[in-house]
Amino acid sequence: MEKVLQLRGQHRQKVGPASVDDTLLIRGAQLGDTASFEELVRQYDRAVLRLAVHLTGSQEDGQDIYQEAFLRAYINIGSFRFECSFYTWIYRIVTNLCLDHLRKRSSRYRDLTTTISPDGEEEQVLDRVPDQRAGASPERNMASRELRGYIARAMQRLSPRERVVFELKHYHGLRLRTVAGILNTSEGTIKNTLFRATHKLRVQLAAVR
Predict the structure, then answer these.
(1) Which of 93, 121, 124, 149 has the fewest beta carbons under 10 Å from its own?
(2) CA 183 to CA 30: how far, in whole Å?
């Protein structure tokens, strides 16, 4: 298992059509074949790490949750009953870990590239890079930074579950049915949660227009 966890940060493949049938890999892992589980990690590690880091708003916390998620998957792979895809199963594990983290720590939303300026204030690393696109201007860059700040503060006002649902839908592009499967609830419940989250964000961002 130590070798598996050392795969953290390598991100060799994007999630998508599996290069090897997940069913064969899962059955191999259930029979104790470590190489089969390693291949599952290779296929999904990038997506899982991205999700964990994005939801927690912290690369360090995201890395910890990423590692814990695959550790739990490794320990519990024997109980996998093929009632859902491995994709949904591992996303469910990491999402639940992130929800627990957000509830316990009341983690505030921020981009991974946030750093501390010499003045002691938070700023985005990407904001230091001049926009070289045609039509770019300092005024436009400033407006973009301000907008990201408004969005970040608005996201902080969502409940952990609302935030997770909103991000899974809009930042990770998952269908509501998939989100419902990950959170082990009905699609109708997810629609209601997404509606509440969207309404809160619109109210918070109304003054930006």
Answers:
(1) 121
(2) 24
